[in-house]
Amino acid sequence: MSRQIPALFISLQLSIAVAFTGLVVGVVPARAEAPAVGWPQAASDLPVEQGIRFGTLPNGMRYAIMHNATPAGQVAIRFRIGSGSLQENDDQQGLAHFLEHMAFKGSTHVPEGEMIRTLQRLGLAFGADTNASTSYGETTYSLDLPEADAERVSTGLMLMRETASELTLDAGAFDRERGVILSEEKLRDTPQYRGSMGFLNQVLTGQRVTQRPPIGKTDIISNAPVDLVRDYYRTNYRPERATLIVVGDVDAAAIEADIRNRFGDWTSHTPAPAAIDLGRLEKHGERVATVVVPGGATRVQIAWTRPYDSAQDTVAKRRQQLIEGIGLAVLNRRISVLAQQPDAPFVSAQAGSQNLLKSARATLIAADTNPDKWQAALAAIDQEQRRIAQFGVAQSEIDRELAEYRSMLQAAAGGATTRTSPDIAGALAWSVGADVVFTSPADDLSLFDAAMKGLTAAEVNESLKLAFAGNGPQLVLQSPQMPEGGEAAVEKAYAASRAVAVSAPSHAEAVAWPYTDFGPAGAVVERRVVDDLGVTMVRFANGVRLTVKPTKLRADEILVRANIGRGLLDLPHDRPLPIWAAPAVSLSGLKAIGYEDMQKTLASKVAASDFSIQDGAFRFEGATRPSDLVTQLQLITAYISDPIYRPDTFKRVQQAYLNSLAQLQATPGSVVGRDLPGLLHSGDPRWAFPDRAQLLDTKPEEFEAFLRPYLARGQIEVIIAGDVAVDDAIRLTAETLGALPARPGAREQAADNDARFPAPTAEPVVRLQNGRSDNAGALVAMPIGDFLSDLPRAAAANVTGAIFRNRLIDQFRVAEGATYSPQGSVDLSKSVPGYGFGYVYVETTPAKVDHFFDLVSKIAADLRDKEISSDELTRARSPIVEEIKRSQQTNNYWLESLHDAQTDPRRLDRIRRGIDNYQSLTAQDIRTIATRYLKPETAWRLKILPADGSAVR
Q1: In this structure, what are the phi and psi dihedrals at residue 643, rounded to the nearest 5 degrees?
Q2: Is 420 helix (H, G, I), strand (E, B) or coil?
Q3: CA–CA distance from 75 to each of 416, 558, 636 (Å)?
Q4: Alpha helix locations (H) across 736-866?
Q5: Residue 936's CB: how many other CB atoms inside 10 A?
Q6: Treating both helix axes as pointing N-terminal to C-terminal, what angle do 95-102 and 226-236 enclose, rounded to 10 degrees?
Q7: Closest CA to 386 of 286, 265, 236
Q8: Where are the alpha helices (DSSP H) in 552-667?
Q9: Strand, coil or helix: what is 302?
Q10: Counting runs of H as helices and runs of E as strands, what totals does the chain give?
Q11: pLDDT band for position 142 (50/70/90)?
Q12: In the predicted structure, residue 18 carries a pLDDT above the cut 50
């Protein structure tokens, strides 16, 4: 069963094993094709995925090209330079990332300011389709082309060639970009980031990665002469360090010829730099450290490190890593079960292993806990680690992990033919950085089964000995403040736990899945087909409505959603309710089977049941495959008809929220994310984030009393989209949701229960953040209206919003360097009548907040007073149109678009006319929107200022 953990609980991402990505093990079949020189498969016994053209130019640049028609007519390009912050000299710290920014600031054949505009005209949105990233050992440039025509592909390859050696690196442009980078540094400087860096500094003490965070040093960013970034560019952007990846609906042979023609003359004019010395892993035994992160979470981490294994990627190496990963997955499962117990010592915990930036191989156990429970959390994870090290794993535990991983591989193999081009291109780029063979999902599955056949507990236990060998254990306590008694208290608590003897674990037997029969199948009383959209609509005798959209967009993927009632619109707005506790529904399990037993029983299935409370529905949903659709529908039906509200699960969610409060006060962005929904709904408690008193005062029984009636009586709408036959969807829904007792008709909504946009602000609303004193946020929002009541207006408003954001980027970011990434959107509700707004938001220095407000007023006035040019209209509209086309090639588009389509025909009109409404827009339409809605007398403004009132750090 796919484990879907709410994002609230995901505090640490661990690769259980490198072998878990692109796994392939066992006997390798013979391949007639010669391995590509310079690629990992040339020196490996692993089979590379077929259908990809791998090559190396005489100058050393590598390329990989693959024809892929998902989405149809689109292309993903990735240009990876094997150089990042680790390659910087001491006086260049931050300039690898700075150079990445400068790639958008002019080159030999593309004047400054024209690259983004050129791409916008071709339908690429800045950020979404045009982006770049800098890490420790690589810099990657990304383009997702919406069409595979010759002009777009040629432009994409031309821009990558410009990036390779033709950047002008103008001194004036360099100076203007300093403020943008400094603003990004502030944006990234969160408690989570500081905690991660503090941990890395402890486990990799003295190694180069601890001295080269990609964001760099602010004094160098502020003062470095442009010649230093030019030196870095000439030294490190070299063909032998470059890899170009093109995946999409293209002729691979033609693309290969184009690459050879464009990049064949690229040469380096400086000597190859010496290999970077990453340093040596410090040898040590048991030790303890504390990392104090004001405003951060309380986290207990125990690590073991050993030297990074740089050996070739082979069958044997992957098998060893996989076996280690299986053992750690068992440990991960055990500590996850502890989190579900009454009075659990932590909110969440994870165990796994990963390579740390080619500097070490680390095994890590981490637990997020309450500030006053760190000793209990430490004892729990320490003793579970020693328990598995001493007594090992049971064969039944191994078999469960293998079954779950096998189901994941089966799903990946089933959907391999419809993997998206951006996903494949990203995976190929990752494989280059990791220096691993790019293996196919089909090989992964067949060879996994061959290698794992007969895997014994003894083998896994031997692998765990290696995982817990090397340096360590090293305890790192992250805390908002130094614990009472200092580090000596931490050492004492660790010693006390280590003195406790551990006993062998007990193993409960798996239970059968109890929800297979919901009574006689429901009768279909109405069935109709929307021919032009390929949609079938069904109503069962019990009132359940089913909408089915069969597609071949993703092989073996089916998305299922059950919408109940009207969600937030059903709720009273005169008092706060524990809406925030929604994650407790799924995590509580069911009356007849607990959450952990459910995970165990459904380990071989691909099914999930996430729950959320949306504006227009109480929602259960999951992703599955055709062979598991019956299980998916049984799971959702069971959650609707036989839920249980476990107090301990509620308390776990409650504590996670309490633990997050300090972090949510730490930056302007986190304050906005927390407060804006409530503020823009006039303080309506249905959208407001709970404060500490509300969290503490809410009892588990109050959550059940609030939610149960709505789930029990609300009308049910089911939407199924994906690789499914209509008759199968109807039959299986009839046996599950269609078999439930009939529910009363939909209740009339109270006339005063809709959301309301706040009144205009004479002075901005002020919120404070507890983080850096040189960081502030500012936001302006204006009411517009809902989406469905006027579809042409919605299209015009979206394009107007894009124009507004483009101008803000040009003026506040590019010209002034006053912010990193201006945010803006038009959010017109499809559920709340009459409600919707447009907004723009920036993070900047406190001194520039009022200037931002003035600039927003100036842009709005200009849009009201003057017509835009046809070029500006094209640059704003084209990326939106292409995004709609792209989204229409996903099952999720249909899941979203068909909500309430049986009772509201406007939703079908939106599907039919969505693109036409954009294509018919004129400059006068934009001016009309600006005149009607972008008015100073309707504007609502917000500023987020440092709590200390200072304007400097």
Answers
A1: -75, 165
A2: coil
A3: 17, 25, 37
A4: 791-808, 849-865
A5: 13
A6: 90
A7: 286
A8: 583-587, 595-601, 629-641, 647-664
A9: strand
A10: 29, 23
A11: very high
A12: no
Bridging pattern class, strands 298-306 and 360-369: antiparallel
- Backbone phi, then psi, for 712, in 5-degree steps? -80, -30
* Cβ pair 304, 473 in contact under 8 A: yes
Using DSSP's 3-state secondary structure scheme, residue 45 falls into coil
The burial class, CB within 10 Å (0-12 / 13-18 / 19+), for 539 is middle
Cβ atoms of residues 565 and 715 within 8 Å: yes
d(CA 366, CA 332) in angstroms, rounded, equals 10
Please check whether residue 480 is in contact with residue 292, taking contact to mean a CB–CB distance below 8 angstroms.
yes
Q: Strands 287-292 and 471-479, how do they pair?
A: parallel
Query: Cβ(62)–Cβ(266) under 8 Å?
Result: no
Query: What pLDDT is recorded for position 744?
Result: 84
Ramachandran area for residue 934 (φ above 0: left; ψ -120 to 50: alpha; else beta): beta
- Which tokens go with 456? 């014994």
Q: What is the DSSP letter of 393?
A: -
Closest to 750 in 3D by CA, of 615, 573, 617, 564? 573
Buried b (16+ CB within 10 A) or exposed e, 857-887: eebbeebbeeebeeebbebbbbbbbbbebbe
618-624: strand order across its sheet? 524-530, 535-540, 545-550, 716-722, 558-564, 618-624, 610-613
Tokens of 845: 């220095």
pTM, two decimal places: 0.93
Count CA atoms within 13 Å of residue 201 on its CB side.
15
Q: Which two tokens stand for residue 189?
A: 């400087």
Q: 946-952, long-range: CB within 8 Å, 24+ apart, which pairs? A: 946/768, 946/769, 946/771, 946/772, 946/773, 946/774, 946/775, 946/776, 946/846, 947/768, 947/769, 947/770, 948/773, 950/773, 950/774, 950/846, 951/773, 951/774, 951/845, 951/846, 951/847, 952/773, 952/774
Kindly state the tokens that stand for 276.
């970077």
The single residue listed with the structure tokens 């432009």 is 155
Q: Is the backbone of residue 470 left (phi > 0), alpha (psi -120 to 50) or beta?
A: left
For the beta carbon of residue 7, count every other beta carbon within 10 angstroms. Answer: 7
Task: Provide the 8-state DSSP code for 506.
Answer: P
**SS3 category, 576:** coil
The conformation of residue 737, written as its DSSP 8-state character, comes to G
In the chain, % of residues over pLDDT 90 = 92
Q: Which residues face 643 on adjacent strands?
A: 590
Angle at which helix 171-188 crosses helix 95-102, to 10 degrees, equals 120
Question: How far out from the chain centre does Cα 685 lie?
Answer: 28
Reading the block at residue 362, the tokens are 């680390």
Long-range contacts of residues 330-334, Cβ cutoff 8 Å, at least 24 apart: 330/388, 330/393, 330/397, 330/398, 330/401, 330/460, 331/365, 331/384, 331/385, 331/388, 332/16, 333/397, 333/400, 333/401, 334/384, 334/387, 334/388, 334/505
Pairwise CA distance, residues 2 & 899, whole Å: 25
Torsion over CA: 29, 556, 52, 272 (sign): negative
Contacting residues for 24 by C-beta, under 8 A, at least 6 apart: 46, 47, 315, 318, 437, 439, 443, 444, 447, 448
What distance in Å separates the CA atoms of residue 889 and residue 327, rounded to the nearest whole number?
Answer: 39
Q: Distance between CA atoms of 69 and 554, rounded to whole angstroms?
A: 11
Rg of the chain, C-alpha, whole Å: 28
pLDDT one-digit tens code per residue, 760-776? 999 999 999 999 999 99
Q: Are 710 and 716 in contact (CB under 8 A)?
A: no
Residue range 370-387: mean pLDDT, rounded? 97
Sheet holding 62-67, edge to edge: 52-56, 62-67, 242-248, 75-81, 139-145, 130-134
Give how far Cα 514 sits from Cα of 2, 250, 591, 642, Å: 18, 49, 10, 11
Q: What is the mean pLDDT of residues 426-447?
A: 95
| Residue 288 neighbours by CB under 8 Å, 6+ apart | 474, 475, 476, 477, 487, 490, 491, 494
d(CA 20, CA 171): 45
